[in-house]
Amino acid sequence: MQIQDTVSTRQTFFTGENGLWLPPQESTTAGAIDSLFNFILYTSTLLVVLVAAAMVYFVWKYRRKSHADRAIDVKESKWLEISWIAIPTLLVLVVFFWGFTAYVNTSIAPANAYEINVKGQKWFWTFEYPNGIQTSNEIVVPVGTPIKLEMTSQDVLHSFYVPEFRIKHDVLPNRYTYVWFEAPEQGTYQVVCTEYCGTQHSNMGALIKVVSYSEFEDWVATGGGAGQGDKSLVEYGESLYASKSCNNCHSVDGSDGTGPSWLGTWGETRQFDDGTSAVMDAEYTTESILYPGNKIVQGYLNQMPSYQGQLDSLQVNALIAYMKDINGQATPAELAAPGEEPAGGDAPEATDTGTGDPSDPQGLATE
Ligand code: CUA
After folding, report:
1. pTM for the structure as a whole
2. Which end of the chain is more exposed for a tag (fewer CB within 10 A), N or C?
3. Which atom of ligand 1 is least distant from the CA of 195?
4. Per residue in 312-322, pLDDT tens?
């Protein structure tokens, strides 16, 4: 998944070219955040060392067996008292105004910023562009352009964090929060959720792909690469399985997740927690994708978000084709690239597709 793809990004946390394990600075505001961080780190280190050194010195000097002179009264020292009030107050004020400026600068986007809507939900991110393109767990943005994120949550608290951009902002239900960034370099950057939001919290990641302006325009013109393209229905379903984050909860190898595995279930009778049952077919599966709460498979919780409005009917069909393929039941038409003659006639459903398979008399009859 995405998070494993960018292990190299995470390694820079520890091998750090910026020293102090900080990831590379990849946004226009990252430098200001790091300077403030370093200022606080170095002044606190200095203060800790000074206070601890004085403490150790006095412990040693006035240890019980020492002959240090304890007889004189301690007299007040004006300059000492003024300095321990004035210096920390000044430091705190510097940090406040510096931090406030940096906060305002990362919170208020420039007026010409390109706006993208962000929605967090258990356990993935969806992004919506001004022209209606929707993506999951991936945004493509142009280099050198301010990008404003308008963020909200469908369910619980999440937090949108991009270490390389030094931006981190809570994403709340029933409220909009904003953050912006401008990436001066092309590259791929990891988004992580930094608010514990449930069992799959640690897998709730996304990628920000910063590309050249012309690449971005191409990407927008082709609908964000989210279409079927020249993929077969099964391959399209497989790509949606990952890009729409079905893989967070449903395995395809039979292993148990937050939801039931897709392997070994197609065509089987599913028992629901209200005592009813149904055969897992296209109708039941479509209902479960769009209205997941209607039928809850026994032994699982009602946790799945509705995909209504997030998948069109072609995409639902593609996911169903992929589920059938995992269980060895995809039809030749579902396995064929668009516009291509379906290959072979050995799949059991070949006779009821009527799509022009050479071995299918009904298909021939319709031509
Ligand atoms: Cu969403 Cu953690």
Report:
1. 0.64
2. C
3. 2
4. 778 888 888 88
